[in-house]
Fold these 2 entries.
Entry 1:
Amino acid sequence: MTCEERRDLVFLLAAEELDGAERDELRAHLSEGCPRCLGALAESQAIVARLAADLEPVTPPERVRNALASRVALESRIADPASHSVSARRGWARTALAAGLAAVLAAGATALAVRARVERAEREARTRSAGLNVIGSPYMRAIELSGPALEFQGHGHLYWDYHDGGCYLRATGLRAPGPGKVYVLWFTDADGQPLRAGVLEVSRDGEAQLLTEMPRTIDVTGQVAVTAEVDGDTMKPSSDAVLHGELQSF
Amino acid sequence: MAERRDDLTLMELLARRDAAALDALYLRHSSLVFALCLRILRSHAEAEEVLQEVFWELWRSSGRYAAERGSARVYLVQLARSRSLDRLRLRRRREALLADAGGPALVASELGGDARLPNALAAAVSGEEKLQVQAALCELSESERQAVTLSFFDGLSHAEIAAQLGQPLGTVKTRIRRALLRLRTLLAARSGGAR
C-alpha cells in the first residue's frame, strides 16, 4: 500500500474510526516515522478537532479551574518542597544546621542510627513519589482535612484514587502527637463505625503523610479523621480528632 | 493563525512549568473542551472530571509536546474526545455489570441548566469555524449526518448506532467512514486547503 492510498485511513485513524488489522498496520507504518503519513495525520487531527467547533462553547464551573490550580501547586510543593516556600527553605536550613551539629556531637554514634535516618528519608521520598501517582490519577478526589478547633492548626488533604483505591494523606501544621503516641487515620463504615487505615509519618516540622488503601467497607459519604493514639494498632479511636473531613465534601 | 501563535508561546512556557501559561490555555480552550465532554458524557459531574483530567494531562506532558503535531487546541480536543469516550465505555461496562446483577441503573443525564453559558471569547474565536463546520455537515445526506453525529459527538459505538438506526453494522460503518471523508474534503476546501 502506498502513502497516497493510506491517506483516507490516516484520517479515519485520527477520527478513531479505524480498528483491527487496518489500525495496527497503519500504526506500525507511522511508528517507522514516515514523514508523509505523519504529516497527513497532523493535518487529519486538525480537521477532526475542527468538527468540535460545531459545538456551542459551555463555560465550566470555576471550581474546575481552582481544582486544577490547586493540583498544580501541590504537585510543585511535593515534588520540590525546598524551592517553593520561604518557610520550607528555612526548614531545610534548620535541618541542614541540625544535621551538621548532630554530626559533630554524634561523632561516636553508631552507624545504625545514621542508617535509620537515611532509611527514613528514603521511605518518605518513596511515599511522596507514590503519593504523586495518586494525585495525578484522573480518578483522584481531594478531601479537605482541618483541625476542629483553634488549638489544632493542622490542615491537609486526603487524595483518593477511587478507581484503584489508593489514598495519600498529606498534612501540615500538626503538633507532635505526644510522648509514645502516633497519629492514626480513620474512616467510617456504613454503620458509622471506625475503620483504621494506617499510621501517619510525621516529620519534625509538622508535615505528615500516609500512603494507604481505602478500606473496602467505607461509607462513601462518611467521615475521615486523624487521632493521636498510644497504640498504633488499635481498632478504635480513643481521642478527639486533630484532623477531620467528610468524604462527600469533594 | 494568531491563536495558534499565541498557543505555541503558551506551550513553550508550559514546557518550562509555568502554571500561569496553563491557566491562560485553560481560559482560552476550556469552554470548547467542556462542551465536547458534556456532549459525549451528558453528565456535568463527569464532564468536569474529564475537563480537569485533560488539562492536568496537558500540564504533565507539556515537556513532550511537539508543535509540529498540531495546535494546542487540536491536542486538547483530541485528548478530550478520547478521554470522554474512555469514560463513556467505562460507564457502560459498569451499567452492564449492574444490569446483570439486577441493580439500579446509574444516574442518567445531568445536562442542561445554568452551566450552559457560552464563553464570549471562545464563541468569537470559533464563530467562523462553527459556520464552516455546520455548512459542511449540511452538505452530507441526512443518514450520513445522523450517523456521524451519533459517532463523533455522542460517542456511540458502531453497533449501538446500527441498533438505534435499525441498519446493518456494515452499512453504518461504511456510512460513517464515507461521511467523515467527505467532511474532510469539505472542510479542507472551506479553509483554502489543508493546514
Entry 2:
Amino acid sequence: MICPNCGSNMSEKRKRCERCGVDLTIYKKVIRISNYNYNSGLAKAKVRDLSGAIIALRRSLDFNKKNTNARNLLGLIYYEMGEVVAALSEWVISRHIQPLDNDADEYINKVQSNPTKLDVLNQAIKRYNTALKYAKQGSDDLAIIQLKKVVSLNTHFIRAYQLLVLLHMKTGENEKAKKYLFKVGKIDVSNTLTLRYMQELESPAGKDINANPEAEQQSSITNTIIPISSYKEDKPNIMAFVNLVIGVIIGIAVTAILIIPTVKKNNPSDDNSSYTDNASAVAQLEEKDNEISTLNSEKSELKDQITKLQAQIDNTVVPDTSAYETLLSVMNLYLTELSKPESERDYKEIADTLTTIDDSQFSDTSLSLLATLRATTYPSIAEQHYETGHNLYSDGKYEEALVELSKALLLDPQDVDAVYFSARAYDRLGDKKNAITYYNKVISDFPNSKRVAEATDKLALIQ
Amino acid sequence: MINFDEEIEKFQPSLEIEQAEDVITNNDLTDMTDILKELLKGNKDNQ
C-alpha cells in the first residue's frame, strides 16, 4: 500500500504512515469501497447487466482512480456496447496508471492489431452521428436507413439500436421497434432506456401514440371502462351437434353417390359381360347335369362291385397259421429223426401229429409235403399199432386192442388184418353191430384176402 | 408517453476514434483519494 501523502510503501495493517505519520483509516475505507463497487460491477457484468455494471465501476473509479481492474472492466463493457472510443480511453488511462502487468495492454493490442475492424467500427460511429443529425432534423427515413447500416456494421452498438427503436416507434412501426429492442435486451439486459421503450411498446397507450393522440386518449378511456355483463350459465351448444349430424349425412351421401358406383364398376363379379351369353351358360349347365348323372351311375356300379368283393372277402378262408406251425414242427421232428441212425428212428409222434392235421388248410405244395411225410411214416407206425393191438387182443384186452387197431387203420386203411381183428374184438366184447360191420368190410373191401373165409364164418355165427 | 423530439435530443453523438486523444487528455480523473490528499494537505498547512 502506498501512502497518499508521501508516496512511501507501507504495511496494509498500519493505520498510520510510518514515514509521514498520516492517519490512513479513511484512505483505507475509500480503497475498500472502491473494491466493493468493482466486485459489484463484475457480478453485474457476468449476468449482462452492463448498465448496472457501468454505474458500479464508475463509482469504484470515483473512489479510487487507480483501480485498474475496474477501469479495464469498464473498458470491456464499453467495447461490448459498441462504444469503442470510450473503451480505448479507459484502457489507455489504465495503462498510464499501471504501465506494467496490466490487462489493458492486451486489449489495446487486440484492437489495434485489426485496423480493418477498427475502421469499420469507426465508420459505424460516423454513420450513427450522421443518422442522429438526420433524426434531429426530422428526416426519419434517412436516419433509419443510416442506422440500419450502422447496426449491420457494429451489431453491439446499443445507442444505434435505441435510436433506431425510437424512430420506428415514431413512425408507428412498433413490431420492428420490438425486434430491435429484443436484440438490445440480449446485449444489455437491464438498460434503463431499453426497458422504458419496451414498456412504452407493451402498454396499450403506446401502440397508437403517433397515429392519433386524441383517438388514443379516447381508446384508453374506453379501455378502462369495462361493461359488467350479467351472469349466464353456459348452455350446451346444440348447433355443434346439428352440424356434426349434417356433416355425417353429407359424408354418407358423397360415399353413396361417388364411391360406391366406382367400387361396383371395378368389381369383376358385376361385369355385364358375364350375362351376355345365356345360351352358352345353359349348354354348360346341361353338360354339367349329364356329367352328374354319369357319375351317379358309375357310383352305383362301383357300389355293387364293392358289395361283391366284400362277399368274396367274407367267403375266403384265411389259412390258419397255426396249422403251418404244426406242419413246421412236424418237419422239425422228422429232420431230427433223420439225423438219428435208422435203427433208432421213431416216427410215432410224427405220425400221431400228422393224423390231427386238417389238409383243407394247406396249399398244394404243402399237401404234397404232407403226403410225402405220411407215406414215409405211416406204414411203419401203422404196423406198430397193429402189432400192439393184436397182442392186446391175444391177451384178452379187447378194448385197448380196439384203440390200437383203430389207430393202425387210421394210418393204413388197407390193412385187412387190422380190420379183421377189430371185428373180432368187437365180437368178443359182444358188440355184434360193429363186429358185423367190420366182418362185412373184410368181405367186401378185401375179397381176395385170406381173411374173407374167416370173416364169413364168424359172421355166420353171430347172425 | 414519450415525446419523441425531446427523446431524440437526449441522444448524444458518439465519440469517434480521432477524438480519443482529446477525451483522454481532458478526462477528469479526480477521485476520492485526491480529495483526501487535499484535505490532508489543508490540515497540514493549517497546523
